[in-house]
Amino acid sequence: WGGVAVVADNTWAGMRGRKALNVQWRAGENAEYESERYAETLTKVVRSPAKVLRNVGDVDAALARAAQRVEAEYYVPHLPHAPMEPPVALARFTRGGEHCEVWAPTQNPQAARTEAARALGWSEDKVTVHVTFLGGAFGRKSKADFVSEAVFLAQKAGVPVRVQWTREDDVQHDYYNTVSKQQL
User: Fold this and answer.
1) Strand order in the sheet with 127-131
2) 142-165 tens-digit pLDDT
3) How far apart are CA 98 and CA 86, in angstroms?
């Protein structure tokens, strides 16, 4: 586990407490990654000769006879999912701390339960996940990172904890959609 959390009585106090922090982060293993340089690499790859995996018919002859030939390249950068509402989860412990309940707008409650149990080092039968309403999440809430954060913090704090991501958190820490380059 890594990171910093502010536990507060309400969202506003938590956001103000977080703003008051002066955290100095070290760049991780991907610090050298640059989107533009990677896009250039992808462009070189799609423009280079490729290995033919399937050859049916005579493509060269068909293209030579074509009345019109259309070529296009498409580039899709890393994009966040940007769900309608940022990730949020609430976790609490019941039965003398022997059971964990989670409320979250998850698209994958099975993975949320598995991840919560993993974060606690428990078996899954000790975790219950209640799925709340959720707006368009575009696949983002199939990941359970925000659920494990709530479970971890509730266990450490000894009280129910709601983890509320801000829009800025969501854009900065999303599981970005993969960058791609296509040549047609």
Assistant:
1) 127-131, 99-104, 88-94, 161-164
2) 999 999 999 999 999 999 999 999
3) 29
